[in-house]
Amino acid sequence: MSSHFLPGADESAPDAAGSGRSPRPSVLVIGAGFAGLTAARELEAAGIEVRVVEARERIGGRAWTDERLGGHALEMGATWVHWMQPFVWTEITRYAQTIYPSPDIESAYWVSDGVVHSGTEHDLDTKLSRLQETIVDGSREFFPYPHDPLAILRDPETDPELRERFLAADKGSVLDCLRNGDFTREEIDLADSYWSAGYQGPTATASPLMAKHWASLSDHRSSLMDEQTLRFKLTNGMRGLYDAIAGDLRGEITLGTPVRSVAHDSHGARVTLATGEVVAADAVIVTAPIGALRTIEFSPALSAEQTELIASGTNSVGFKIWIKVAGRHSVIAGAPGRHPISLLRSEYFLDDEDATILVGFGSDHTAIDLDDVASAQKAVDVWRTDLTVLECGGHDWVADPWSGQTWATLKSGQFFNGWSLFHDSTTRLHFAGADFAKGWNGVVVDGAIESGITTARKVMAELR
User: Fold this and answer.
1) Is-contact 249 37, C-beta < 8 A?
2) Helix (H), strand (E) at residue 311
3) Which of 332, 314, 267, 337 is nearest to 412 (CA)?
4) pLDDT of 167-221, one tens digit each?
């Protein structure tokens, strides 16, 4: 890799024609996930020189289509999309991608107090619906504009009582609302199963507001929320979409190159790469997740609030696992967060192999060995001991230094003291990514694309 400064770093340098004018402005984008690639594309379209540096040896970030379990294309990270996710759907349309549904399920299982209950998927949905209505109650009044989640705090006409209830809703845990009602242990355990997977971490520390915000983005309907987050997949995988965006870029994408430090002020930035190269630019956009920001030294240092958030981390300490079992099994299963896997469902039926590939989610990445058949078998046995695990695999995003977490879910108190801390800047340092999105914050690719676009537009205005 060559060592050089980006064009635009020396504002006194004459242009190629010798006119003495500054060359076009430059931006360094750190991270080649959806946010970084989208930001780079927007900036280039405005005539700005862009270089992207990525710590991994691949693009995509926490979206990664890989061949596993016998050469099947499986998503190690982000998976599901939907036409009601405006930013990702625009990209799906732009690049002529197509989608298809996850399969309908025949049998459902859920665990409470060591007892395995069973029924149909409809039975499970019916049991969940009353729980979800209680958990997401308040979404309409708290989030009248779902893609502007803090709107009622800025509105001077907001009723003071509503404002106080809104602020209070970020405290406690997502399941507190169930423990004071007439819900049974079985029902609370069922809700714990769902949200342990959804929050990718313990429900005891999960902000109640995140669930309500998801509901607001789903027309305040839990059934639509499930459809948006667990139903439709890209025919060509996430790889088909992030490769298409990257294919539109003219500038360099440097892979396998972590960033050591970012020095920034009101005029520009100087970024030191792990190779020792120093890159100067008129602005820098950091798209690393909150869990990976500790790997970068910032000068001047980030604010005390930002530093505290990075140190404490998000609620995202869970995992995603793919499991191949012998035979054809159309199942969905749930178990409270104290079990290794909280949510398990069939995704692919391999008739030629007489096997089924299931996807599972859990709240603690240390509770299972993603690549160990015996570990996966023990987890699956919670529901059915007749399911024989043949292979399994995944990627430990929490242990990965370039993510430090799975998707960004919020601890209690972080809805107001989390992602929004990174929106404003007094220097040429900016942040983008799903972790900082206003709409689908953290959980789906839509938020990453939104943040990439809006941050790029801020930088474009700044550089004018």
Assistant:
1) yes
2) helix 304-312
3) 314
4) 999 999 999 999 987 999 999 999 999 999 999 999 999 999 999 999 999 999 9
